[in-house]
Amino acid sequence: MKWQVFIGHFVFVASVLFTGVVVIGFKLLRQYQRRRSPLHGKQIGHVPGQQLLDRIEKASEGVGYGVDVMTLALPLLFLVWATLRIDWTNVRFGVAELIFVAGWLIFFGYGFWQYQRHAKQREQARDGLLAERVTGMQLNRLVAQGCVVLHDLPSEVGNIDHVVVSPQAVFAIETKSFRKPKGDGENHRVRFDGRALHFPDFTNVEAVPQAERGAQWLARFLREKLGSDFPVIPALSLPGWYIERTEQAKASPVRVFTPMGRGADFMAYPTERIDANQRALIAQSLALRYPEIKE
Known about the structure:
Layout: H1 7-33, H2 50-83, H3 95-140, E1 148-153, E2 160-165, E3 170-175, E4 189-192, E5 197-198, E6 203-204, H4 207-226, E7 232-237, E8 242-245, H5 247-250, E9 255-257, H6 276-287
Parallel strand pairs: 3-7, 4-8, 7-9
Antiparallel strand pairs: 1-2, 2-3, 4-5, 5-6
Domain NERD: 127-245
Keywords: Membrane, Transmembrane, Transmembrane helix
Transmembrane segments: 6-29, 62-81, 93-113
């Protein structure tokens, strides 16, 4: 048996190896260059639903693998069957073959672009989910101090990540997760000047206005529903960051904080501007924003 009969097998194995080398190389490069999650190394514990999400992700990967096997089984076996019937001694490399190689490179490049794009989106989504859950867990501790805490409140400007109804005010909270550069010390600090967040190597100007829009809608909603003006304070949660506030930030209506430790306790200060009956009415009005699941 001549070695040419294994050319089809060689093409398949070479494709698998080449793809593996490219993917591993990309991961190593990302590992070398990548920024760290702001919650890297923190003792977070089990966030609600995390084990179920891990099981869902693992099962989803298994489902995708099964579909891939079913889809590729016939083409791969047909490829083996066909290559065994080709007389490779008569095959010559020419223009047609060059076109096929160029087509393979185009498809491979497109696939790699899709892979790295979605890998980055998945990483960002995971960071955001963890940040929201950590913030929610820390805010839930305020219930022991007489606060009402709601999560993912539907609104006309998009869901508000968290709402805390406390004796002093109603807080409309947005949670953001920004990765840290490698290193320690100054790389873990963000400066808030009242309008923008200045990180070690970039500036974000979108997060603060987003928190303000949520608070403005919430204040308007409560005024229309209850006929009174309540103090509504926009807040921005940045888990894992050390926050420095400038003099301008102290005059800003937006409170930027980290929920870690006792970072959210300022919401439960005993100054009472909203009495218990009003807090109950506010909580009831907000609870009705959630969709009812009918039997």
